[in-house]
Amino acid sequence: MTLDELKKGESESVEFKKNIPQDKDKFLKTAIAFANGAGGRIVFGVENNSWKVTGFSDDEVFQKFDAIANSIFDACFPAVVPIMSIEEIDNRKVIVAQIRAGMSKPYYLRSEGMMDGTYIRVAGVTRKAEPYMIKELQLEGCNRSFDTTQVVGEITISEINSLCERMYQHALERCKTDEQRTSLKKVSLSQLVSWKIVVQSNGRYFPTNAWLLLTGNFEDLIPDAYIQLASFKGTTRAVFLDKQEAKGPIDMQIEDAMTFVKKHINLGSRIAGKYRDDYYELPIDSIREMISNAVCHRSYLSPGTIQVAIYDDRLEVTSPGRLSPDLSIEQIIAGNSRIQNSAIGAAFFYMHIIEKWGSGIPRIFSDSRLYGLGDPEIKDFGSSLRISIRRKAFDTDPFGVVDPSLGLNVQHQSSASDEAQLRSSASSSASDEAKHQSSVSDTEKNSISNTDSRLSQLNKVNLIRALSILEQIKLDPHVTSDDIAQKIGLSRATVQRAIAELKTVGILSRKGSNNGGVWIIHFLE
């Protein structure tokens, strides 16, 4: 250790001791905490608060060296073997006990037992582990995750098929391109088994915690696995404007949470050439990412729910559980990640709820800057993690158009993909407006507008949108409004309004359900 390193003070992985304390448990608890985390160093011969190097004389340094090493080895279970060294700082000898991250967690003091003698490191402080934290350490020591743990009960093939179909339909709705939709395969029983959502044994099938969470049948075993939603007046929690609880299958909780958020944040429009597109004040894709990450990565052993709180000046998502010991907030922002619940992660990846590992947080930061909101804030409270994104003035004129004088550098987001953002950005320029109009061929325009006078009821802007929408429907009668929005660079709400107009004038109707139905175009001959 150098003098410069010493001046940085104590941290998550460094602790100073002036001498071997009479109560050896004080440094032994720290050794335990380092072994249960990502490792660390205890430096003897440095004052805690002043960081003054007191050091040890040549006569005593080796005696104390042996005493420290033996105390750690004898007091900890499973055994912790420190890497000991004597170093010189400012011409004084100090003793460094380096503790590696353990492979057989949880580690605890023999004299206190597992439930009372297990310690962890939180924000540079050693503290006793809560019972749920000990369970997490046990799972970590076995290289398992909570969601893959088998639970009591047995499930039928019919129930398995039902979940597979629902996951497929959700994935289909979240596909961003025709290529994704065409290549998407239905999830199979063998995949659920490989993901450890289902356990197969002797021709019988048993649920794991992931099964319970994905089917919504978890209230008895995991009662806190839901999302609390609230909108507040002002910048504190003093006055509720609205509150709700999102329960049921965890993937559907995300959809319910997004509906609540959209209800309580501002919606305006931007005039792009002859087009009027809808814009939320916050990057919707990033909000979805924040909530999806919380659901996927939270600790389901930790007491407490996910909380989505909307204030006048910010939106916050708080997730129960501590940050993985081998990750820092800086590493998360840089794109590093560690999956907390592997089975849920696999299911969410299939359903396009989460994308490439580690890409979510950097994208949230990028979108926030794009909207002129600055960097989001991430706080680690030891037992929970919170990410918040700022809100700022979002004034509109009497027609709901965003005040251009605010200089809001926003792009329309009809999907989470960069491709959709680029299409949207392109459609907002005057030059690309011509491309948008020409996407419907002259032959198509003539054949439709000349044979069907009902289109004359639409103004020029709506006519161009209608023709673009009808072209997409002719190419794929099963296309959804989300897909159309992504393909032609408009918001979902704008497309739905245009479709409603086409239905009103009798040109368009839909047969069947929203997910499995088909569009029918009624042209007059």
Q: What does the model show?
A:
- With 525 residues, the protein is an alpha+beta fold.
- It has 4 domains: 3-141, Methyltransferase, Cobalt-precorrin-4 Transmethylase, Domain 2, CATH 3.30.950; 148-215, no CATH class; 227-415, Heat Shock Protein 90 (2-Layer Sandwich), CATH 3.30.565; 439-521, Arc Repressor Mutant, subunit A (Orthogonal Bundle).
- The protein contains 20 helices and 20 strands.
- The strands form 7 sheets. A 6-stranded mixed sheet has the order 12-11-15-16-18-17, covered by helices on one side. Strands 1-2-5-4 form a 4-stranded mixed sheet.
- Helix 10 (250-264) runs antiparallel to helix 11 and helix 19 (481-488) crosses helix 20 (492-504).
- The termini are far apart.
- 37% of the residues are buried.
What's the layout of helices and strands?
Blueprint: H1 3-7, E1 14-17, H2 25-36, E2 40-44, H3 58-75, E3 76-77, E4 83-89, E5 92-99, E6 108-109, H4 113-117, E7 119-122, E8 125-128, H5 131-141, H6 157-174, H7 178-183, H8 189-194, E9 198-201, E10 204-207, H9 209-215, E11 227-233, E12 239-246, H10 250-264, E13 267-272, E14 275-280, H11 284-297, E15 306-310, E16 314-320, H12 329-333, H13 342-350, H14 360-370, E17 377-380, E18 384-390, H15 418-427, H16 430-438, H17 442-451, H18 460-475, H19 481-488, H20 492-504, E19 508-511, E20 518-521
Parallel strand pairs: 1-2, 11-15
Antiparallel strand pairs: 2-5, 3-6, 4-5, 7-8, 9-10, 11-12, 13-14, 15-16, 16-18, 17-18, 19-20
Helix pairs in contact: 10-11, 11-14, 18-20, 19-20
